[in-house]
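Hi everyone, sorry if this is the wrong subforum. Our group has a chain we'd like a structural model of before ordering constructs, and none of us has done structure prediction before. Sequence below.
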Amino acid sequence: MFGERYFATREQLSQVMRGIAGLALETAADLGGSLPLEEIENGLGTPLLFIVSGEVNAGKSTLLNGLFGHDLCPVSALPETDRVICYQHGNPARDIAISPLHEEHHRPHGFLRDFLLIDTPGTNSPVRNHQETTARFLPAADLILFVFPVTNPWGASTWNFISELAPEHLQQAVFIIQQADLREPVDISVIRGHMADLSMKRIGRVPPIFAVSGKLACEAKRATPFAGELLKASGYPELESFITQNVCESPRRNLAIETWRSQAAAALRAVEDHVEKQSHALNRHGYFLDTIEREIDDIRERFVVRLPHHLAEVAEVFETEAVWISKRLRRRLGVIPSFFRLFVGDRTGPAIEAIFAERLQAAVEAVAEKDSVEVVEFCRTHWNELGERVKEAMAVDLGSAAPLDTTLTAAKTQFVQRLGRAARQGIGNLKVRNQLDKDLRRRNLALKSFAFMTLLLTTAGATCGALGIPWLPLIFCSLAALFLIGGVLTAWVTRRSIIAEFQSRLLDTCGGFASTLRSDYEEALRIVFRDYASSLNAVRTHLVNEKKAIEPRLKRWQELFLTLKAIEQDL
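Answer:
Right subforum, don't worry. Here is the predicted structure as tokens:
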């Protein structure tokens, strides 16, 4: 098809401009109305208007059929066209009467997307006023084909119509000698010469003149395979080459495409600038979030720096609980309870350790609860201030504090529980019970010895008394009393020494216990601030999604840019 390169370039440019408009809409780039889609459709998509005029049965319809290789116009030996017919694209096919002298024929042929064809009645047709209807299309015509039958190229009606045309309309005029296959080449040459002379006399200029055979062209284009030699014999290649070079690729048409291409390039540069600004803004937002996260880390470090004060408070709690548990141990090591446990088993060590661990855990959790409240309140205050900064820097609303409250509440609970578990585990690691168990075993062994001797001597005295042996019961009972007194004294003395040593060991491990909590305290604080920082994940996710969205936009921009460059090189 003639003009394929022009139409392909025009369609390619149209698609590029639509792509630029779509990319501008997606990136919210303001093109200032320089690339409206309506003008793209109406400007680039305007079909070329061809008008065919000539006498009745000059071969106008056959000419059009031969040009486009389709039976678009009905052909007959009798006059077929009795009104001005406008052939344009439309699906389904339909005929619309615009006026008694004007019809629109919509056909689904693809080439009609690019061409608007006006087939007119013969200039010598009895239909009145049709030339006035035809004249309305002349100002917009890209090509006016005046068809002369080779049997009579001197028809007065056609020449009279040509003579009445305005000079600007004659610029688009082309003379077609139709049915050239009916004459010899020599005759055709003579006819060309006479038509040129007549044209000079009538209108003062000689339009391009082509001798063709529409019949041969139709046969060539319908043949399978395509009949190239027959098409050459029809004279159509010269006509189609002229249409391509002088109509489709005319300076006027190319200037229009170049104008649109320049506007598209300017619009694409505007989109590029906007996307670059967005990219720089996202980078700034990323740096801003990094700064916020470093700021949160600095806040955590400030709380860690205050750690010795908090550990001193933990040490005081430890000392208080150490004194209390020593008093509890004193009651358990009383004389009567001590002798009683000789017979039922002594679990003083595990019981004291369990009580001490439980109370110390509760006390440490109370301290941690107070610290966590302070940390959480600081985070809430910081979040309120941070929300304003984020909105100002990134135009992103951090939202309500409800999700943050949930996060901080969970972090606070985890903080307290972690330190409580660490306190219980720290008691086990200090092994304060090991020496106590050893001391209690030695004490119980001594008490068992005294109790055994007391019971043994008492039994011996009772036996002698039962047998009526004088003096021996008194002696044995006296000895039993001495052993009992010795056991009581031993229990009382060892209780004091064991309690004193136990309390001393606990107080000596006070600093060690506080130190064992340091790493857990730091880790618990880290987790709290990590959870606090995770509240910014929505903003970070938004930023990541925006960065991901820019990548395909940049790729599309590059594709549009390369396509525009290719169009520029073609032009």
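For your construct planning: The chain has a mean pLDDT of 85. Residues 251-305 form the longest helix (55 residues).
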